[in-house]
Amino acid sequence: MITDEKISIILNQEDCYKIKVMQKAISDITTPEQIMGGLIDGGFATALKTLYADGLITDVDYCDDLKLLPEWFRKAIKNKKS
């Protein structure tokens, strides 16, 4: 279920530095928000895979939640065998 709840975070200097290094490694102009969004998508995908493999979410919930990921990410998950 998606809510309108918002979460704000404050990053320390080390984490800000890490984001800047990630930005340098990406050929397209990328904002810190885009990087954080990608990291959240990665964590979300891992959580879905784990919950589904452990039988803690249904097929329907798994498929519905996959739709919250970008299309390229969904394709990568479906093509991955592990």
Task: Walk me through this protein's architecture.
It is a single chain. The chain has 82 residues and is mainly α. It has a domain at 31-79. The chain is built from 4 helices and no strands. It has helices at 13-25, 32-53, 59-66, 71-79. The two termini are 27 Å apart. The mean pLDDT is 91.
Summarize the structure in short.
This protein is an all-alpha fold. The protein is built from 4 helices and no strands.
Secondary-structure map:
Elements: H1 13-25, H2 32-53, H3 59-66, H4 71-79
Helix pairs in contact: 2-3
What descriptive keywords fit this protein?
mainly alpha; globular; 82 residues
Helix fraction bin:
55-70%
* Helix-and-strand structural type: mainly alpha
The SSE string, one letter per element, is: HHHH
Poorly predicted runs: none
- In whole angstroms, the N-to-C terminal distance is 27 Å
**Average of the residue pLDDT scores:** 91
Number of strands: 0
What percent strand?
Answer: under 5%
The coarse overall form would be globular
What Rg do the Cα atoms give?
15 Å
| Separate helix tally | 4
**Largest sheet at a glance?**
none
